[in-house]
Amino acid sequence: MKILNIIVFISSVMPFCLFAQTVTATGDTLEHAESQIRQQAQKDGGKTYKIIEARMGDKVRVTAEIFP
């Protein structure tokens, strides 16, 4: 039974992992970089995105996964 639960969980999560697209944007502020991510998600037909990395220095760099 435990193995069956694991298989069901993996098969339900796997489609989202397979179709996620990773994008990176840079900007002067965090809001500007996130705005670029949001625009890219809308352009690619993504419904949601998740920011997985953000770095700040002279510029802000944001990496996100876009989900269908």
TrEMBL record:
Keyword Signal part of the UniProt annotation: yes
Residue span(s) of domain YdgH/BhsA/McbA-like: 22-67
Signal peptide annotation: 1-20
InterPro entries in the record: Dodecin-like, YdgH-like_sf, YdgH/BhsA/McbA-like_dom
Domain of life: Bacteria
Keywords in alphabetical order: Signal
Protein name in the entry: DUF1471 domain-containing protein
Species of provenance: Pseudenterobacter timonensis
